[in-house]
Amino acid sequence: MSKHPIRVLIVEDDVVDRIACRRAFAADSEHDFILLDSESGQQGLALAHSERPDCILLDYHLPDLTGLEFLARIGADPVATAIPVMMLTGADSAAVAAESMRRGARDYLVKDVDGHYLRFLPQAIDRMLREQRLLDDKRQVEAKFRTLVEQIQAITYIAELDEGETMRYISPQIQTLGYSPAEWLAAPGLHAGRMHPDERLAALQAIVASRRAGTALRLEYRLYARDGAEHWFRDEAEVVRDDAGVPLFMQGILVDITPNKLAEQALLQSQHELRRLAAHQESIKEGERKRIAQEIHDELGGLLTGIKAYISVAIERAEAAGRPAEPLLADAAGLAQDAIGTVRRVITDLRPSVLDQLGVWAALEWYVEQVSQRAGLHCSCHIDAAAAALELGPERSTMLFRIVQEALTNVVRHAEASEVSLSVRRVAGALEVVIDDDGKGIETERLLNRESWGILGMHERSRHFDGELNIHGKAGQGTTLQLRLPLEEDNGS
């Protein structure tokens, strides 16, 4: 495999040192060094200008110039200024080396009296050139980026007011799609031909309608570049009219919105994943509620029942022995009964057993009755026969129950209502759930409050199943919650 040649200009007034450098380069088997010699600074500058070597090996002490003067002059030469320079300094010249780097030297090597530096010379030159290439690549990338940023602009066009796609003018920025303005103008059907099939028909209809009616155009669609790359564009055009108001032509711009579309798609994907995660967490939460409710029922409920039984036995034994029972025992029995009632309410709030045992419709009727008893509200529940015949599945059933539960909880806590009704009916391809109350009406600020976790939770629960949840309130006239839930195909809908 041939080695890439490296052209090195050695600017060194000491002939012995020049010979030593040549031998060091010649002894290196990894590179093909082509060497140029100069014994003075002026001669070195002339060779750098005329020969354009890959790099310069510069001794600081020259008969006519110092190394710093050499660096200053080569930096002023528009031809040779980009040539990287490695400075050879004395062992006690750290300050000189630092100043050389500040003045433009790419690297330096300490020239010791024993000549040990010669062993590192080829590798040092190779390292410097690799760093120089990286620097050049970086500069090129930065230059391209600057050019891109400075020249990015929309594709502008002027189109005839006909039903075809005849254009009078297209700006040079059409080259972003790989076409010259002449190519684009010479082929009126090219625009339509490069549209994405999914948007072509609707886009062309909108364009034709806009030009025929002389109305503004606002449209988004994809165009394929010559190389097949897909770009999203926003097409905006206005009719240009003469002083008499007669339409002359359409003047528009095509703005590349591909990054925005990609970001939008990424955001939608992120939202989808977050909703899946939220649904998974809700599933886990429901499982935990069920488990905790079961444990409370089995453990705490059993203990309280046992305590009450022991107290009852103690009271019965005292009465059987003809002694009055300790009054505190009767109080303890009452407290135990109250505790059992509290445990039952906690279990019901965690996971009502009726939801798992009898299904969502019975659970909704039961829960409405519970709210009526606890809150003193007049509550009604109507589930039509078509809806009651549906089997929603455990996840949808839980979602529906929790939304109703949250909604009725909000009515009790915030609505100041005296009546509330729940109705469920089956409509075309969907289930419709409506909750009405006669309270003070939910405030708009609360609906828009992103920290209203209950409302947000209801929305997210419904969205996971492609449901649509709407809440409307009017001051003094109550609040209406409406949930529209698409029915699954396997329900026979």
Automatic annotation (TrEMBL):
GO CC list: membrane
Histidine kinase domain: residues covered: 400-489
Stretches assigned to the PAC domain: 217-269
UniProt cross-references to InterPro entries, sorted A to Z: CheY-like_superfamily, HATPase_C_sf, HATPase_dom, His_kinase_dom, PAC, PAS, PAS-assoc_C, PAS-like_dom_sf
Keyword Transferase: yes
Signal peptide: none
Domain Response regulatory: start-end pairs: 7-126
One GO molecular-function entry: phosphorelay sensor kinase activity
NCBIfam families according to UniProt: sensory_box
UniProt name for this protein: Two-component system, NarL family, sensor histidine kinase UhpB
Lineage: Bacteria, Pseudomonadati, Pseudomonadota, Betaproteobacteria, Burkholderiales
